[in-house]
Design brief:
Layout: H1 18-40, H2 42-50, H3 65-75, H4 83-92
Helix pairs in contact: 3-4
Length: 103
């Protein structure tokens, strides 16, 4: 049964409650996220943990970024190279720009 099929009930008009909805979102969602992040440092901890993952599939999320992932895909050696080799090679390229030139 649809809401508008219920006898005597009209459509819910959220526009009438927009101010209250926005206040609720600010107080219960945005401010809570900010408080939780400040208290537990979750966002930073998550990204710091990515640097310790030793799986090639997640290299693009690490501090080595897309450089390591591109090298891995270009060489087509996903399963034959160790993560340490990929990290070492990507670290050597940190001084290069996107075109492989110093910059």
């Amino acid at each position: 049964m649809r809401v508008d099929d219920v006898e005597g009930k009209g459509e819910v008009a959220f526009e009438k409650y927009e101010k209250e909805i926005d206040e609720f979102k600010q107080r219960e969602i945005y401010e809570r996220i900010f408080r939780e992040e400040n208290a537990h440092d979750t966002f930073h901890s998550f990204f710091a943990s990515l640097d310790s993952v030793r799986k090639p599939d997640l290299l693009y999320l690490s501090s080595l970024g897309v450089t390591a992932a591109r090298r891995q895909m270009a060489e087509g050696e996903k399963d034959t190279k160790s993560v340490e080799q990929i990290i070492s090679e990507a670290s050597d390229d940190e001084g290069e720009d996107a075109n492989g030139q110093e910059g």
